[in-house]
Amino acid sequence: MTRMLKAQYTQRGPVPQDVISAVPFDRPALAEGQALVAVLAAPINPGDVLTLTGHYGMLPPLPAVGGSEGVGRVVELAPGTPGPAVGQTVLLPPGSGTWSTHVVVPAARLIPLPNEADAKQLAMLTVNPPTASLLLSDFREPAGRRLGDPEQRQLRRRQLSGAAGQVARLQDGERRAARVSGGQRTGARR
After folding, report:
1. Given the residues 41, 56, 174, 178, the one annotated as active site
2. Is 9 a catalytic residue?
């Protein structure tokens, strides 16, 4: 049987690596509607670090397992539970304690992903792409005001353009990506 570990913390502190440690755990029994998922990749976001230090806006009750996003592969479904098939790569629900070898999550909240795709790239789908998408659709500078000096604005535009171009290519294909990036190609294939 595979050894199961989770990155658990029982307190918060100014040095994240001092409050979190790898803790072994037994394979959990599944309740109706649940899935056991082997975690393939889970990034470390600034919000994760702020959570460990106690400076994030929403803090989970302690003890907690680190990690707010990730991707995994379905290992088991509880009897009678509909959901992605065993072996399917899935996006894990946000905030499910993804710094773990395995997680138990509601099967209905799993989003199937291509099995052949890069797990490290897929693991970052929850936080950053939605932010870029919202910036594309909802962000407007206040009327008559400029935010920051010209160099800062240009840097922000370039950073947003790269991320937004990637999201736009996923949403609408190459034409929109070219419009978002100011007509310049941003690494897209011809």
Report:
1. 56
2. no
Strand 71-77 versus strand 89-91 pairing type: antiparallel
Domain match, 98 and 171 both: no
| Pairing mode of beta strands 34-41, 20-25 | unpaired
Q: Does 12 map to a domain?
A: yes
33 lies in the same domain as 82? yes
Within-domain flag for 185: no
Q: Using one digit for the tens of pLDDT, what is the confidence trace for 133-184?
A: 666 666 555 555 555 556 666 666 666 666 666 666 665 544 444 444 444 4
Is the Cα dihedral 35, 39, 44, 48 positive or negative? positive
Residue 190 resides in a domain: no
In the 3-class helix/strand/coil scheme, how is 55-101 assigned residue by residue?
CCCCCCCCCEECCCCCEEEEEEECCCCCCCCCCCEEECCCCCCCCEC
67 and 156 belong to one structural domain: no
